[in-house]
């Protein structure tokens, strides 16, 4: 068919091509739209890596967006996946079976671990570490997150403070405290890996961290008044990113019995870009189903399709961080945490990332505050348990 059209144009002129004038008028607009879409889709990961036999812990994999795209790619490459889920209900197991079917990989497992519940995080980490010899772990990929409606349309949705089971603001608990606690507790597992094992800790962040604040004396934001949900979200991302720099430092400076340097363990921050994700839908719709249908699905979707990524495209930077040989110990030029944006290493813009004293103090204060909170919640659980026993008798 294309050859026939070319022949007709050469022999009889463009008048022989049906609708040629209409196509000629539309072509410039289509070219501009195509160029914008090509630019907005972002870079593609071009590195390949054999993941057969490797073991990864994933959070946020059940998102049906970026997280699911990453999990599917790793599963197809033969990796064993331990997927942490807030709930291990019938839907979660069906999702897991579907992932096994699509990837042809049966080594995919679901574990219940709600990151906004410190008790569940500690239970999972303790179970993981309570093994001799130490379990193999090639990396942790953190893609989970929580965004609360910003309340930009008064009356359409509630912007009241939601709390975790530990009493923390839910965004701060999920995006910062739970992830920090998990990675901090898993440090012995990272250090126990063999020196030839390339271990990567990949944590996704958001460009909104540029709007965040750091509270050194109250890193869990227990005393902060809830006025602006976006402030809690952006600050949770900023504080987590800063703590990841300190985590890398501590893994490198640890005393290894076999004389290792710890440089086989890499901490990477990834900013996947603006995606048509659950978080974006929640922000635009303000948590209202009506506004979701009107604003997101009808008014803005053509522009969002043109200017934002889908989950598969957002996953490319995460896959790049996992597969690039630049982070292998033999190829590493320095010991700094890499910040990957659009499959490229970029520099941090906030001045806090250069303040080593602030970063160290934030890490220490966060660990201390979490430990104190865990003790308070343990006392509360024991009291409730004893009260239930008393009522039975």
UniProtKB/TrEMBL annotation:
GO terms for MF: oxidoreductase activity
A Pfam family of this chain: adh_short
TM spans (from-to): 289-307
Superkingdom of origin: Eukaryota
InterPro entries recorded: NAD(P)-bd_dom_sf, SDR_fam
Residues spanning the signal sequence: none
Keywords: Membrane, Oxidoreductase, Transmembrane, Transmembrane helix
Keyword Transcription set for record: no
Gene3D superfamilies: NAD(P)-binding Rossmann-like Domain
Family in the record: Belongs to the short-chain dehydrogenases/reductases (SDR) family.
Name the record gives this protein: LAFE_0H03664g1_1
Source species: Lachancea fermentati
């Amino acid at each position: 068919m294309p050859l026939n059209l070319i022949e007709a144009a050469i022999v009889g002129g463009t008048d022989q091509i049906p609708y040629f004038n209409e196509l000629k008028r539309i072509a410039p607009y289509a070219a501009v739209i195509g160029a914008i879409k090509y630019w907005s889709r972002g870079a593609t990961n071009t590195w390949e890596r054999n993941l057969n036999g490797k073991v990864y812990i994933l959070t946020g994999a059940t998102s049906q967006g970026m997280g699911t795209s990453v999990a599917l790619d790793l599963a197809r490459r033969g990796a064993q996946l331990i997927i942490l889920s807030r709930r291990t209900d019938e839907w979660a197991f069906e999702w897991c079976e579907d992932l096994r079917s699509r990837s042809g990989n049966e080594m995919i497992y679901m574990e219940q671990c709600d990151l906004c519940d410190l008790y569940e995080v500690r239970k999972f980490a303790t179970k993981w570490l309570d093994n001799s010899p130490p379990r193999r772990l090639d990396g942790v990929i953190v893609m989970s997150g929580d965004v609360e409606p910003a309340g930009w349309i008064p009356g359409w949705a509630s912007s009241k403070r939601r709390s975790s089971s530990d009493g923390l603001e839910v965004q701060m608990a999920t995006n910062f405290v739970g992830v920090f606690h998990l990675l901090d507790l898993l440090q012995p597992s990272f250090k126990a890996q063999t020196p030839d094992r390339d271990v990567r800790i990949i944590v996704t962040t958001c460009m909104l961290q540029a709007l965040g604040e750091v509270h050194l004396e109250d890193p869990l934001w227990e005393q902060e008044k809830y006025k602006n949900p976006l402030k809690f979200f952006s600050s949770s991302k900023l504080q987590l990113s800063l703590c990841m720099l300190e985590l890398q430092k501590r893994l490198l400076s640890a005393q290894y019995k076999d004389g290792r340097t710890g440089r086989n363990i890499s901490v990477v921050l990834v900013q996947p870009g603006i995606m048509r994700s659950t978080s974006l839908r929640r922000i635009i719709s303000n948590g209202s189903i009506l506004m979701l249908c009107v604003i997101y699905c009808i008014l803005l979707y053509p522009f969002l399709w043109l200017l934002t990524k889908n989950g598969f495209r957002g996953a490319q930077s995460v896959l790049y961080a996992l597969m690039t040989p630049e982070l292998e110990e033999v190829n590493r030029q320095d010991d700094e945490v890499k910040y990957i944006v659009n499959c490229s290493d970029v520099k941090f813009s906030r001045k806090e990332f250069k303040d080593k004293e602030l970063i160290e103090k934030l890490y220490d204060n966060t660990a201390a505050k979490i430990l104190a909170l865990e003790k308070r919640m343990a006392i509360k659980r024991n009291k409730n348990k004893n009260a239930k026993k008393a009522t039975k008798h």
